[in-house]
Amino acid sequence: MLILRSLTRLGPMHGYGIAQHIQQMSREVLQVEEGSLYPALQRMLVKGWIAGEWRQTENNRRARYYRLTAAGKKQLGVEMAEFERVVRAITNVIQPA
Amino acid sequence: MEWLGELWRRMMFLFRRRQFEAGLEEELRFHLEMKQAEHVKDGMLPEEARTAALRQVGNATSLKERSRQMWIWGWFEAGAQDTRHAFRLIRRSPGFTLVAVVSLALGIGANTIVFSVLNALVLKTLPIAEPERVYFVNNSGGPSQSFPNYRDLRDRNSTFESLFAYRIAPMSLSEASSSGDGHAERVWGYLVTGNYFQSLGTQPAIGRFFTPAEDTQPNASPFAVLSYACWQNRFAGSPRIVGKEIRINDAKYTVLGVAPRGFHGTESFYWPEIWVPMMMQPQIEGHSWLDSRDTFNAWVAGRLKPGISSAQAEANLNSIAAEIARDHSDDEGMHLTLSAPGLVGAMLREPTRAFTGSVMFLAVLVLLAACLNLASLLTARTADRSRDLAVRVSIGAGRGRIARQLLTESLWLSLLGGAAGYGVAVALLRLLTQWRAPLDFPVQFNVNPDWRVFVFAFAAALATGILFGIAPARRAWKVDPASDLKGTIGSTSGRRWSTRDVLLPIQVALCCLLVTSSLVAVRGLMRSFAIPLGFNPDGATVISYDLGLAGYSQEKGQQFQKRAAEAVAHLPGVESAAYSSSVPLSIDQSSSAVYPENTTDFRPKNAEHPTWYYVSPGFFRTAGTRLVAGREFISQDTPNHPLVAVVNQTFARRVVGTAQAVGRRFRLGDGSELAEIVGVVEDGKYVTLTESPQLACFLPMLQRYSPDVVLMARSSRNSSELAAEMRQAVSNLDPELPIFGVGNLREMIGMVFLPMHAAAIALGAFGLLAIMLSVTGIYGLAAYTVSRRSREIGIRMAIGARPSQVLRLVFGRTGSLVLAGAIVGLVLGAAGATLMASIVYQASSRDPLVLVTAVLSIALVGMAAAYGPARRALRIDPVQALRSD
Q: Of B341, B367, B387, which closes a domain?
């Protein structure tokens, strides 16, 4: 979900950029491990939520940029809704009465 | 739809693997460089930054591996990879592969064959509609019912949709429609009631079947249905056969139709050529038993109504049986049971099941031995590879993955072995199916494998693969990179108990058990040939013919039989010739009731039922039966003289009450007729080899006529030559007479030896397999021990160990393991006597000869297997051994 969300904010971006973005946005709370990032990206490629293409970076290096597909947007909606539901539930439980 | 896209993308991945790998590689490199740049920006030195980046990213191989796994179905990918790896290893050690595949092929092949036979005889249902509702009705003590009882059961029962009766009957078939032209041949057929085909739910290939309405009046329905094979072989498959007239036993019959291909009724071994309505029985057999309550000649089977259980039907039939028994003293104590059809009800089914089941059990043991063998070989190999495995674990291979790879290896080995074994089994089963027993009877076993056999073979291969793969996989699971990489292998394995130490004795025990079994079987076979049969089949040549089928009257028949015997007796080299209604141990045996002379109550319970023969003068001399007292029949024993009989010793004891029976009399038939005993002959075997001493009674052929005879000649000449001359001699007297059952007597009675032969062949083969497996197993372990401890042996030799000490060191353990296994095996073998007794007659595993031979052969096997490794151990050059590693 975090990756999908980052891609909606950033537009097409490479793996490193996504990790950086998540780290920055979460103010260094969430460290994205490479060991999970790339398998996750591959899984989403398989599911067809994102698509990848090779492009040049600003400093002229070749990198794979991922972008959200229509199916990915839909999936993000589903996951956001689910996430909000859970958060609300947790909030309700821990709220002081 | 989404899964379709996913599938497509996965497929694309499969084809563009290389591109994908390169992409991921580049992506990671890019990632690392970015990280490094970031660290440099934070003030690190480039080198430092690179190390830090690498540390953060972690195990790149495992990361790539997991990314890749996202794409492919993990198992598929891993399986394909493992398979490639397995085949590389298989190719790299062809010797090991050969041993593994061959021993598996033999094990799985043997199991497939045995299972296929078991499947064909016991498991497979008959090729009829809804076979699960068809049951055979067993009478108390045998398969047969009297026809009046069948009628009562059919009409009074409420649980069967239909109940039919059938009887195996030989017939003389002539294709010509008029008498006198064309040669008649004896064929085997069925007499069946009119509802037979309807009950079995069979549709004719062409024409139609006869119906219940066409089977009501005796001798009024001369119709015939041909088997598909008969139609093809004798009538060239001509469609004009329907409605055509043929001659059976010299009477006209109309062919109504042809049964579908492969249909052969309800007995799985019997392939009739022709079906005739039961009401034609008097014409076909020459005398009628259709209204006789004391002749038990019909086999009865039927189709249950839907939803009725066999227990309900059995209860229903027995309540009728009780009524019948009340009305007729012949049926006293009648009790009916149902069993699956196919093997003459319960009569053959139970022994067949016991026999094939036990052989199957032993076959599984063979396979188990092969498994254990491979398990220990593979474990040894895995141990040799432990360093290689440790390296792989330390560079990031999961233990589960390695274990799985080893399992894949063993699975592929077992599948290869299974495929080879299945191939061999199918070829052998084809041969077995085509094989016709050298008998005058259409016995044929269709043991060709079907899907069940394939599934069995496949499952057996998988199971063995997993079974012998588990031990090495477990070992791989426990790989400890730290110690294994240090190269301290061998220092611990010398004393510690390992899986191998357990596997070897079990294997040797199994081998011992199998060797003992096969020796017992072979001994049993040898002994069964030496059992006194009560006659001497060697040197006796027989031909058979049925004058009744050829339309002879009793008077003309008796003349013909005498002339034929005289003609044969005058053939060169014939010592004596005689004829009889049947010979002992052939398929055709009949019995009849007799009573002691002073009996007044002629109910069945007071009767004895000796096996019954009509024999000509000179029969006992020709058959080689020893006369204990009295005389043979002579040509003066004619209907003008009082009825005389020759009986065997058991008869004399049981009916007359004394061995000195000559001159005493007994009653026969309904009790009104008396016969005087003029001779007593030795006991013999009459129906089966395994029977306890039975009563036998011989009456003179001249006083009691049988149109169906076996003509026997005793001669030292080659029996096939003589048989041809005998056939010619009889044909000279009547060229149209169908002659059958030509050959030496041992072949004619071969049916009774058949199970014994089968058992001896099967168990002998198992024994050989077991020995081969033990040799490879012991050899493997011994060779492995030597190679493992070559350094240690080198050191010991260098400091002055004598060869005997070295041998004791290396083989002491193996030897004691083998010894332990052998003792357990022998004890098991001795305890398996009951099992053996059900397979082989005359089998005793307490036979000292068998035990000694088993012990000797195991000892020999052990020594032979250890010889090579022992020599190698003694030739170890300390200098060489210490340098290696």
A: B341
